[in-house]
Design brief:
Layout: E1 16-21, E2 32-42, E3 49-56, E4 62-69, E5 72-80, E6 91-99, E7 110-120, E8 125-129
Antiparallel strand pairs: 1-6, 2-5, 2-7, 3-4, 3-6, 7-8
């Protein structure tokens, strides 16, 4: 849902606020121990950052995970769990990148890869990719 941006490069002097959300969600009714996992990096400037959000059954977008995703030059694996992910008919996730245009030499924004949704039932582990 972000503008026509095909990589994680950005202009450090032009402010931006991009929000990319899932077009369809996961049904977690009857599931337990739900994990939203992905690899991420985000150089940016100390004032530029990424965030992760979730929405349950069409409700408001709520920040989840680390408060700010920034200052990470190598891919890092992230696992997010929250009791609010359980018993939801339509659980969606979104990523946000905020560039405060404070300049700086780093021009790599918030990048995400290998998104995996892991959940458990009473007898097995399952996963799906977004």
């Amino acid at each position: 849902a972000a503008p026509a941006i095909t990589c994680a490069s950005y202009n450090t002097t032009a402010p931006s606020d991009n929000f990319a959300e899932m077009s369809s969600g996961f049904c977690t009714l009857g599931l337990i121990d739900i994990e939203f996992t992905f690899f991420w990096l985000g150089e940016g400037d100390p004032n530029d950052y990424g965030q992760v959000y979730y929405s349950a059954d069409g409700g408001p977008w709520t920040a989840v995970g680390m408060g700010l995703y920034n200052d990470q030059t190598l891919w890092k694996y992230e696992v997010i769990t929250d009791p609010a992910f359980q018993e939801v008919a339509d659980l969606r996730f979104a990523f946000r990148w905020v560039n405060n245009a404070s300049g700086g030499a780093s021009t790599m924004s918030f990048a995400v890869d290998d998104i995996i949704f892991v959940f458990y039932t009473s007898d097995a582990v399952h996963e799906g990719a977004w």
